[in-house]
Amino acid sequence: MKRQLLISISACMMLSLASCSAFQKNVKTEAQLPDDRTTIGSTVAADTYRSQPLERGEIAGDWAIETVDGQKAIGETAPYLRFDSKTGRIYGNNGCNTLNANYKAITATKELRFSDIITTMRACADSGITETQINLALDATAYYDWSRQGSQYRLTLYSAEHKPVMTLLHQDYDFLNGAWAVDRIGDKKISNDEMKLVFDIEEMKVHGNTGCNIMNGSLVTDMLEPDAISFQNMATTRRMCPDIQLETELLVALEAAVSVKPVNANTVNFLDNQGTVILQLVRAVE
Questions:
Q1: Which fold has domain 9-171?
Q2: Which residues contact 277 (CB under 8 A, 6 or more apart)?
Q3: pTM beyond 0.90, yes or no
Q4: CATH second-level architecture of 174-283?
């Protein structure tokens, strides 16, 4: 199918009235979100990227757009792309409008092509990286490469002349999977063997024990901030406990956590918005 680049409302204005109407109808009906993306922009990334597919040369998962043609990508909303390797489709946002396209990656040669790029047609402010620049960069993409720095993955898209046209960021939170014992809350050493957290990164869920009560909640990541993670919708049972103060300190620490960093394979730290370690976990012995 012939590649098409439907980029902005200004492009529509250059068409005849009849063509413009057809153009808008085509875009609005075709540019859609997958079922789990009904609130685009408010939650940029609810998924994490698996390192194994990328190391095999595959592209999948959610990626924040960091730069476009060397300029920092800042739009009205956070620009990002979600690669669905099962369908060969991307979904995302170009800083203003919802974006859909087909993509094909050839892992042996690291070739990457986007086709049938379409967007919604909401009028956008002319500030920062514009939606047109992002769409044009996708249209110019011919190759890709990736790099890893700690737990962070970066994807670079190149033109046919091997000029970088876009960089994207994602993180791998797989190191959190499994059961962890609470070792420290702030500077306080914890000796309660019942105080544990179990992470399921596939489902973005957490459950565990406060040392007295059972708790459950959700995990939320933000692609725009390296190592960003937070706890939401935390709920506990309400059994009265002899050491209820320690439970309260744990819940307060979880509420304040905004990022996580692995210390080693068996230790992770959660930090607050000042960069202070407020919670340390160690891998639980099975």
A1: Lipocalin (2.40.128)
A2: 184, 186, 269, 270, 271
A3: no
A4: Beta Barrel (2.40)
